[in-house]
């Protein structure tokens, strides 16, 4: 068992395993996601109250889920960075933070645009959207801090500390924002409250969520491979991979 | 010159008892408090900023009594938050510049206790004066007596939390260019729960509701910050100092 | 099919601009990120390959300069 843990610390092992996993992640992920989206867009029935605008859900919910999951993954990686000083954990955080930030932005954008036909305004300070906005700021802070520190090891650990402080705060922030929201909107129904869904609706949604997770895995591997190549460029195994060349 | 100040070096001996740690903390706090009184402008700046920000709202939005009564608690809280935030950069900077910070890190006493001491000293110098000034400004935004009382209470409990959390940001951005903006970006999401509960409590009080529950929750924040934030800030300090 | 015609599909009962704006922004921005990631990897690979080739010839060329070898016996 410890062997696996040890291997996980090896950039070379990761690089090779990633190369083998990536085609699967990409094709199965893309297949699931596209199929789910097409099903949701064209074949699922219109929703009782919202009509057709609810179809945004098929990209809004996967983005939102993934945005939150990625931050938690980063927090786990942060613990690994601080406790075991594993380089790959920091490579993960650095590679994945921009993906998480993009997903949060997309969740915000789709959430806001969804609001217009549903509630009549482009933005609503409801609990979900406001929490998403704060999550976006947490990502932005982590990325900005990482870019500001020139020494790689210090940057890794500083960002890890910040991500951990952020993750501890996320439940507190969510609780506060929900409480704040009830203060100001006594008759709350959140904008992004999922309607009771028929199976023709939640099956494609599930497909889209799973597909996006796999696609995220593919992109994370890709970006991590690049970072590993840079960091380990002086090693023999990198030289071998480069000679084999091409986009694998 | 520096011989009358208790320097960090004078604390350098192995920890024998808990009172050693307490002594170290007292020394650190006294040093911070004394040195800030020698340069009173550092004390005044957050206060002046506080006043100025509060002034902007009647000027920029509306001086009408109704608006100010409704928005007043929020305005004062936001202004206090910004004032504390702006002064966070100074927490470690002086010590960093003259090399004392490295000495503090090398002390046998646990670093998180020394960080706690510095954070509390910082609060005594920024947050506490703001709380003292609040009743005056609260009258200017037409808050009633009960609300003013609750507002001061929430600020009294909340501003130490701001100093404690801010210390983490200050430690992480130590020595970086554009530390100020980066610090704000990193810390403001963490300040938001404190702000929400601070203002929410005052608004509940204005409507006549009981606020003991919310105040208890804010005290819980304070306890959480007192116990956890210094550890994170200490870890961040070590990282920043190793970065050189 | 939940829609009677393609026009109905595009207009989405009047909600078309919102739904399509979301989907278009989502896919466009995702593709941009993906392409940027792939391009960066390609550039890094090429850069490393380039440097490696440079290093390889430098190893065989003791003079350390990069000029073509001319064999006097052949001319």
Write the layout of secondary structure elements.
The complex is a heterotrimer of chains A (248), B (244) and C (75).
Chain A lengths: L1 H7 L2 H33 L13 H28 L2 H33 L7 H22 L3 H33 L14 H33 L4 H9 L4
Helix pairs in contact in A: 2-7, 3-4, 3-6, 3-7, 4-5, 4-6, 4-7, 5-6
Chain B lengths: L17 H21 L2 H20 L4 H24 L1 H9 L1 H7 L4 H15 L1 H14 L4 H28 L6 H28 L5 H32 L1
Helix pairs in contact in B: 1-6, 2-3, 2-7, 3-7, 3-8, 3-9, 6-8, 6-10, 7-8, 8-9, 8-10, 9-10
Chain C lengths: L5 H6 L4 H45 L15
Describe this structure in words.
The complex is a heterotrimer of chains A (248), B (244) and C (75). Chain A has 248 residues and is an all-alpha fold. Chain A contains eight helices and no strands. In chain A, helix 3 packs across helix 6. Chain B starts with 17 loop residues before the first helix and ends with a helix. The model of chain B has no long low-confidence stretch (mean pLDDT 89). Chain C is mainly α. Helices cover 68% and strands 0% of the residues of chain C. Classes of the chains: A mainly alpha (248), B mainly alpha (244), C mainly alpha (75). Chains A and C meet through helix 2, helix 3, helix 4, helix 7 and helix 8 of A and helix 2 of C.
Largest sheet of chain A: none
Overall morphology of chain C? rod-shaped
* Number of separate helices of chain C: 2
Tell me about the biggest sheet of chain C? Answer: none
Low-confidence spans of chain C: pLDDT under 50, at least 5 residues? Answer: none
User: What distance separates the N and C termini of chain A?
Assistant: 29 Å
Q: Report the uncertain regions of chain A.
A: 186-191
Order of H and E elements of chain A: HHHHHHHH
Task: Assess the beta-strand content of chain A as a share of residues.
Answer: under 5%
The total beta strand count of chain A reads 0
Helix and strand pattern of chain C:
HH
What structural class do you assign from the helix and strand content of chain C?
A: mainly alpha
- Could you say which structural class the secondary elements and strand pairing of chain A correspond to? mainly alpha
Treating each run of at least 4 consecutive H or I residues as one helix, how many helices of chain A? 8
- The oligomeric state of the chains shown is heterotrimer
Helical content of chain C stands at: 55-70%
């Amino acid at each position: 068992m410890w062997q696996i843990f040890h291997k996980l610390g090896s950039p070379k092992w990761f690089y090779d395993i990633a190369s083998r996993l990536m085609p699967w992640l990409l094709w199965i992920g893309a297949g699931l996601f596209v199929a789910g989206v097409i099903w949701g867009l064209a074949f699922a029935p219109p929703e009782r109250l919202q009509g057709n605008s609810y179809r945004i859900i098929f990209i809004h919910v996967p983005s939102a889920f993934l945005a939150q999951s990625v931050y938690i993954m980063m927090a786990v990686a942060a613990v690994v960075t601080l406790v075991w000083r594993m380089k790959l954990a920091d490579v993960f955080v650095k590679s994945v933070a921009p993906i998480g930030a993009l997903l949060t932005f997309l969740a915000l954008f789709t959430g806001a645009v969804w609001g217009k036909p549903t509630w009549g305004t482009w933005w609503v300070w409801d609990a979900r959207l406001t929490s998403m906005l704060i999550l976006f700021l947490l990502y932005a802070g982590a990325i900005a801090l990482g870019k500001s520190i020139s020494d790689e090891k210090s940057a890794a650990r500083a960002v890890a500390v910040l991500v951990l402080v952020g993750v501890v705060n996320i439940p507190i922030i969510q609780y506060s924002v929900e409480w704040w929201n009830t203060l100001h909107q006594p008759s709350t129904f959140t904008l992004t409250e999922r309607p009771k869904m028929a199976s023709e609706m939640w099956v494609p949604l599930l497909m889209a969520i799973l597909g996006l997770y796999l696609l995220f895995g593919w992109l994370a591997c890709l970006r991590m491979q690049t970072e590993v190549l840079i960091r380990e460029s002086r090693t023999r195994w990198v030289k071998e991979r480069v000679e084999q060349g091409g986009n694998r | 010159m520096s011989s009358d100040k208790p320097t960090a070096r004078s604390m350098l001996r192995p920890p024998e008892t808990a009172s050693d740690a307490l002594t170290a903390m007292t020394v650190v706090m006294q040093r911070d408090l004394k040195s800030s009184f020698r340069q009173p402008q550092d004390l005044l700046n957050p206060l002046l900023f506080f006043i100025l920000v509060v002034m902007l709202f009647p000027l920029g939005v509306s001086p009408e009594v109704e608006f100010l009564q409704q928005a007043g608690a929020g305005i004062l809280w936001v202004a206090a938050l910004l004032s504390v935030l702006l002064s966070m950069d100074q927490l470690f900077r002086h010590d960093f510049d003259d090399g004392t910070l490295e000495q503090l890190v090398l002390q046998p006493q646990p670093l998180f206790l020394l960080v706690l001491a510095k954070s509390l000293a910082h609060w005594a110098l920024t947050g506490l004066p703001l709380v003292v000034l609040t009743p005056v400004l609260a009258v200017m935004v037409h808050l009633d007596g009960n609300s003013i009382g609750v507002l001061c209470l929430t600020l009294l409990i909340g501003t130490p939390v701001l100093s404690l959390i801010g210390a983490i940001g200050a430690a992480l951005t130590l020595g970086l260019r554009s530390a100020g903006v980066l610090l704000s970006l990193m810390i403001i999401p963490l300040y938001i729960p404190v702000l929400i509960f601070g203002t929410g409590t005052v608004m509940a009080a204005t409507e006549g509701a009981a606020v003991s529950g919310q105040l208890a929750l804010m005290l819980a924040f304070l306890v959480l910050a007192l116990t956890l934030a210094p550890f994170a800030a200490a870890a961040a300090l070590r990282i920043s100092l190793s970065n050189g | 099919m939940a829609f009677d015609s393609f026009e109905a599909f595009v207009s989405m009962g009047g909600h078309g601009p919102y739904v399509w704006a979301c989907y278009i922004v989502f896919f466009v921005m995702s593709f941009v990120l993906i392409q940027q990631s792939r391009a960066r990897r390609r550039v890094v690979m090429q850069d490393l390959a380039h440097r490696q080739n440079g290093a390889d010839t430098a190893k065989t060329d003791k003079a350390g300069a990069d000029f073509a070898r001319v064999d006097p016996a052949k001319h």
